[in-house]
Design goal:
The protein is α/β, with parallel strands linked by helices. The chain contains 15 helices and 8 strands.
């Protein structure tokens, strides 16, 4: 068995006599210490024990988890700030028991065990349910665009990639011609083979830039082709379903079958047989943004790809464009507990509605009585999905003008839209929908404004999903702590 460094938060000192006296009774630190003792950290332990037992002993995993949990709960997300706080902040000193892990150790622990830390969200959610903080009477859905760990200025469209490749190729040829001319002049002056001119750094920079653009363009074209292939396969399946329908005339059945075979052939031409399919995961039901393509699977000129974080997308938030991800939460209105959370790179919210409802049921083992969402989530399919699940939906049909009238009033509406508009117009529907703003909006305010979580620390969709679950986990932890009115006693 691998042994750990000594870790005893209750170890007595001369002045003061015990760490439990460093902070007032009922402090959040003592609550975190007690909570971490109850959490199942078996996955982290197994990974640590799988390593070679020789070498320097690692820090106690519960201490590292406690540092990260308290840091995220109090708005300290940087590994450097956490490491510095173990010297300067009394609360962090109590948590670390006067140990001082280097910031690289903190960062490596978080990156290595990010998925295990994200899984703590479900453990704390169960504790909140046991404490009676979730009622599932009314759930409010909403999303926010959080900045990715990438700059929007590092994104490039497919059209510009092609133009830059041509430009860089011409510049490299010009530089090569200049270099050859300079070599010829030096050979004539100094003799052949003497003092050869090195490849100019300017040309190397252009070659590296062109190589990056070519790699990004190839990845963008492959992603667009794969998206088009999936679209063609879905069309083929739909055509086969129509052909198998007994109500379809026999002549049309033959036509549908022929079209389905044609779609399958087109998809096979676009899909790369040598490419391994992506591994399936628990978030496969979430929408995923793919670059727009034409009928041949080629990216449209405006299709973009970011060099720093290719999975992030340019999104609109508060009238400004930023390189971001779409972070979703479902909040119980009883005590503002987050009962489901997810992240995707799809900007619009509508496609997140059904997957978020499924997460609520999976996490809480119950169906909410009703669910509210703003106009970004409305669609006839979402209304039917909520009713099929057994929850009553209250979804705004459209945004409103300044005078209070619906923006889309007068347009042709579906039956679901007409019925939902009537539901929200009666006193009960108006009262239920009014709860949405006071349920989910304060949670985003507490996460972004109060705790200062404005952007993700990692790159890639999977890692940012894990970090968002860690953020939501610490939000629920604070709610659980405050529900006790800070009465948790310091450990004896």
């Amino acid at each position: 068995m691998k042994s750990y460094r000594p870790y005893n938060p209750s170890q007595s000192y001369l002045l003061p006599p015990s760490p439990s006296e460093w902070l007032p009774e009922g402090h959040l630190v003592y609550f975190v210490l007690d909570l971490v003792e109850q959490l199942d950290l078996g996955e982290i332990e197994r990974r640590l024990q799988a390593k070679d037992p020789r070498g320097e002993r690692p820090y106690a995993p519960r201490m590292m988890v406690a540092l990260l949990v308290y840091g995220y709960a109090t708005g300290v997300f940087s590994s450097r700030r956490i490491a510095r706080a173990t010297y300067e902040d009394v609360a962090f000193r109590v948590l670390a028991a006067s140990e001082h892990p280097h910031f690289t150790t903190v960062n490596e622990f978080r990156a290595t065990h990010l998925d295990a830390l994200a899984a703590l969200f479900f453990q704390v959610l169960r504790l909140c349910s046991v404490a009676g903080l979730t009622k599932l009477g009314h759930i409010a859905l909403d999303g926010t665009k959080l900045k990715a760990n990438a700059s929007k200025h590092k994104a490039m469209s497919h059209e510009r990639m092609l133009k830059d490749e041509v430009r860089l190729k011409a510049e490299i040829e010009s530089l090569l011609a200049r270099a050859q001319s300079a070599d010829a002049e030096e050979d004539a002056q100094y003799g052949v083979g003497r003092e050869p001119e090195d490849v100019p750094a300017e040309m190397r920079r252009r070659e590296e830039r062109m190589a990056k653009i070519r790699a990004a363009r190839a990845a963008l074209e492959q992603e667009a082709a794969e998206a088009r292939a999936e679209e063609l396969i879905a069309q083929a399946d739909e055509l086969r379903a129509k052909a198998a329908d007994p109500a379809t005339p026999s002549r049309d059945q033959v036509g549908f079958t022929t079209l389905a075979a044609k779609r399958d052939q087109q998809a096979a031409e676009l899909d790369d047989d040598d490419r391994d399919p992506p591994p399936s995961g628990p978030d496969d039901d979430l929408p995923r943004n793919t670059p727009p393509s034409d009928a041949d699977g080629k990216p449209l000129p405006k299709a973009q790809r970011n060099f720093t974080d290719p999975e992030s997308r340019i999104m609109l938030r508060d009238g400004a464009f930023l390189q971001a991800y779409n972070a979703q939460i479902a909040v119980d209105d009883a005590h503002q507990i987050i009962v489901a959370a997810a992240v995707s790179n799809q900007g619009p919210d509508a496609e997140h509605f059904a997957p978020m409802l499924d997460r609520i049921v999976d996490n809480c083992d119950a169906v909410p009585a009703c669910v509210t969402a703003d106009a970004g989530y409305f669609s006839a399919e979402n209304v039917r999905a909520a009713e099929h699940m057994g929850t009553e939906p209250f979804i705004a049909v459209s945004r409103h003008r300044r005078d209070g009238t619906p923006a889309e009033l007068g347009r042709i509406q579906s039956d679901e839209a007409v019925a939902m508009r009537a539901t929200l117009a009666d006193p009960r529907g108006r009262a239920m929908y009014a709860k949405r703003k006071s349920t989910v909006e304060p949670v985003f305010g507490q996460i972004r404004a109060a705790r200062g979580f404005h952007h993700f620390s990692f790159r890639g969709l999977v890692k940012n999903r894990c970090e968002w679950l860690l953020v939501c986990f610490t939000h629920n932890l604070l709610k659980l702590y405050r529900s006790t009115l800070g009465a948790t006693a310091a450990p004896a």
